[in-house]
Amino acid sequence: MTVEVSTSTDTTEPTLKARVDRSAYLAGLLKLRPELPEELAELQGVRDRALAIAQELAIPTTRDEEWRFTDLSSLVHIGFALPDRASISFAQIESFILPEAVNSRLVFVDGTYAPDLSATDDLPEGVLVTNLSVAVQFLPSLHNYLAKQQGAEEVFTALNTASLIDGAIVHVPKNQHVETPIQILFVSTAGVATIAHPRCLVIAESGSSLTLVEEFVSIADGGYFTNAVTEIAIAENAQVNHTRVQRESETAFHIGKTAVSQARDSRYSCSAISLGAKIARHNLEVYQTGEQTQTTLNGLTMINGEQVGDTHSKIAFTKPYGTSDQVQKCIVGDRAHAIFNGKVSVPQAAQLTNAAQLSRNLLLSPRARIDTKPQLEITADNVKCAHGATVSQLEDDEVFYLQSRGLNPEEARKLLTYAFAIEIINHIPVASLKANLTTIIRTQQL
Amino acid sequence: MINENSEVILSVKDLTADVSDTQILKGLNLEIKAGEIHAIMGPNGSGKSTFSKLLAGHPAYTVTGGEVTFRGQNLLEMAPDDRAKSGVFLAFQYPLEIPGVSNLDFLRVSYNAKRKQEGLEELDSFDFDELVRTRLDLLKMDAAFLSRSVNEGFSGGEKKRNEILQMALLEPKLGILDEIDSGLDIDALKVVANGVNQLRTSDNAILMITHYQRLLDYIVPDFVHVMEGGRILTTGGKELAFELEARGYEWVREEEAAEVAR
User: Given an 8 Å threshold on Cβ–Cβ distance, is B80 in contact with A403?
Assistant: First the structure.
């Protein structure tokens, strides 16, 4: 049992806040688990196994190396409840629907599938894009993938799996190329102090390809908690182009896991954009399981106010000839705090790996903070692994150049900030999403 | 194009200025009228570039005395962007690179800032595109320039041409060219100079800062000023530049010293 004790020696200070029992708190969240629907009875074992794992764990403190900079104290004081079954209209979410995916979209409201808001008519025969209760009937191989990715013993992942009641399932059969982007929209109705566990599983069979857009949005402000897990299994020579956009309410908590496994010759490309939430954490884990696997990770965190935006990534090579190319950018204003920890693991067997990682950070205010850490664990001897990190501010000379062309200082700063961010946005393969995000970034209040 | 009755565009009186507590300008006087081309020459460290940046409002310089009037207004009280919108343009010696912003977007934002100031409607991308293409020819620039990021990966000559392209769009009353010729080969210099000459009217004025007399063969000045130690030591016509080229700045210093001794 982990008990966080205040390090303050001043005993008159109210220390109750720091003394929450984080095991008991997690147990409370586990008690909240919704009932497993009858049609998913065969998944009872999956839930139970995760429950058993979670029961041994606690909500991490900043003494946990993985959570050193992201303090969850403000989360563990909230008594979360399950959201009421919300009914929302199409008009409320219409602006979030990508025109490219108007008939290839799934919408989840507070973690639960909303069939009325979803449409999947545009997909080729044989491609399955649906929710969990449909998938268990038509996709026997589901059991080989669901909750099977490495890292399932991590506390929030286990909490999500233990609370499993629904989820988005995407299955693309062998050699099938899905041209239409598939959008999975997770909408929060922003109940104060509610918790949801969105879940997504993507299976790309060998030689297939797809473009996936996952978005986390809210339709009102609220101090809710999204604890999301997405698993992506990419078979031999398959390709997944993944865009993940997190723009939760700025009073919300968002903890998300993306766990990807890549078989030989497969390609995975991810653009992860993190704009929202009061405290956001994204655990992005890629496990290369075969030779000559390509991983491309582009990330952008753009936060201000008192937001915390944390990205922990991990690329685990296991076989020769793997490549990875990673660029993480953070733009931090006001008193916000961005964290990037980029782990790259290259064991002895992964000879001829070529891995590159770049962390670029822009601080917009003297009180903004960034903690960036490359974490390279290399035991193979014939590899190329490059990494770099920069932290910069907008230079007076840059602002002056733009001012001398008639832009006021605020416009100048906005344009320069946009210029810093746009490289990441440009990787996004869906035009309307790219345009939306460009507008958001171009007009962001600094 | 000297005309005694022209409007005074810029009037600088006894200007002194510091950069991080070191005095750089030590009592500078200069008057520029509409239609005129002035050149300031001088050795490194004489304060020429400081002067040009100060006129545009660079925050690194602190004015400690004197006055600068631009078309009757106190220039020193204006923010850099207001100076730009009122018609002061500085072509940078080292134009900055802005990766991620297309040259076209940058030019449009800049052009529209000025339109707004003048109470005119902003041009949309379509109309602006048409306008900018007419100006490209002036600088013999390919339209591909527009889609590239501002100055990123541009050669020295391309950067300078890009500065003059901006000037061609903004049509300033006072164009300040800070070493627009440095680092250019003769062909690039001719293109840049030709662009500047075509932008010249009887309503505007140009102030060139340069090390080299060569530039003045292509943009012929009405006045040449020699600057040294933060002041203008001597002023003459374009022939002064030839004399400088032949005899060096040492000659001006000696003349000045002799003057003082008398």
Answer: yes
